[in-house]
Design a protein that fits this description.
- It contains twelve helices and eight strands.
- It is of the alpha/beta class and 291 residues long.
- Strands 3-2-4-1-5-6-7-8 form an eight-stranded mixed sheet, with helices on both faces.
- α3 packs antiparallel against α4 and α5 packs across α12.
- The radius of gyration is 22 Å and the shape is elongated.
- The mean pLDDT is 88.
- Guanosine-5'-diphosphate binds next to α6 and α7.
Length: 291
């Protein structure tokens, strides 16, 4: 079962709890330290870890052990439940605009190399992709190549027009065409770049996206918390896509994103290929983070 790996790791504690009918600070203190270390190893942001440990402690200490349940198992279950709760519990689908009120618009934002262009192509099922990375002509080609593999149309315009105008025209093209969803790929940007952050806000204002997704590279590690906070404060996001989970990261960034912004991770990228995008399942991620 799901809790097994952690249970094995915390064998000592689980054994120590055997036969007790009450979970106390004394009998779980060591285990909480172990969980804390495990989460830090998985790149969960320090502050996020400490909040989580405090929540687990508060729920666990003093709790009466349910008859017929191993106290160790009960404790581990609390840890999983808290982890899963922080990550939003259920899978979160893309937003959908009501029928008849125009196409659904999804705006992708994030750092350079996070995987925005790749994610744009991956998200495409029956959509018009709008290439708005006006600073990197190769990104437009990359999007066209990826979209070509899955037979999806891309809207492009003279890059001199700028991101806002291209986005606006792309939306008009979608409304006039057969498209029910528009996905806007944007240039990578650092949060300290005021000009580019303003551009992103302007693209957002001009297209009124239903979803504004921050694309976060899972390898960002602890920094994912600051990154998410900064993008959310500056532009406002509705969710995130966590990419490159196929790497050797344990994915602690997932916990940071959710806990800092309160916004769900909607998808995870699990490879470079276009089909490598999966809905995000908090429970699976909880197992992975605990190792
Ligand atoms: P952008 O600058 O944010 O648009 O990033 P790109 O979409 O160009 O991606 C940067 C690099 O990361 C490319 O080499 C992608 O193939 C790669 N990449 C994107 N998503 C994933 C993923 O989920 N897994 C892996 N392994 N590589 C990815």
């Amino acid at each position: 079962m799901m809790f097994e790996s952690l249970a094995e790791k915390m064998d000592q504690t689980v054994r120590k709890l055997r036969g007790t009918d009450k979970i106390t600070e004394a009998n779980i203190g060591g285990a909480l330290k172990e969980v804390r270390r495990s989460m830090l190893d998985a790149d969960v942001n320090l502050r996020v870890v400490d909040q989580l440990i405090a929540d687990v402690r508060e729920r666990a200490v003093g709790s009466q052990v349910v008859a017929g349940v191993e106290p160790g198992q009960q404790f581990i279950k609390i840890i999983y439940e808290e982890l899963t709760r922080v990550m939003g519990k259920d899978a979160a689908p893309l937003a959908r605009r009501a029928a008849g009120s125009g196409p659904t618009v999804v705006l992708l934002a994030g750092l350079q190399g996070a995987g925005k262009t790749t994610a744009a192509a991956k998200l495409a099922l029956y959509v018009l992709l709008v290439a708005c990375d006006v600073y990197r002509p190769a990104a437009v080609e990359q999007l066209q190549t990826l979209a070509g593999m899955i037979d999806v149309d891309v809207f492009t315009a003279d890059l001199e027009l700028g991101a806002v105008e291209i986005a606006r025209r792309g939306l008009t093209a979608a409304e006039e065409g057969k498209y029910d969803t528009v996905i806007i790929d944007t240039a990578g940007r650092q949060v300290i770049n005021d000009k580019l952050m303003r551009e992103l806000r302007d693209v957002k204002a001009a297209t009124r996206p239903d979803d504004t997704l921050l694309v976060v590279d899972a390898m960002t590690g602890q920094e994912a918390a600051n990154l998410t906070r900064a993008f959310n404060d500056s532009v406002g996001i509705t969710g995130a896509i966590l990419t490159k989970l196929d790497g050797d990261t344990r994915g602690g960034a997932a916990l940071s994103v959710q806990s800092v912004s309160g916004k769900p991770i909607k998808f995870v990228g699990t490879g470079e290929k276009v089909e490598k995008l999966e809905p995000f399942f908090p429970e699976r991620m909880a197992s992975r983070i605990l190792g």
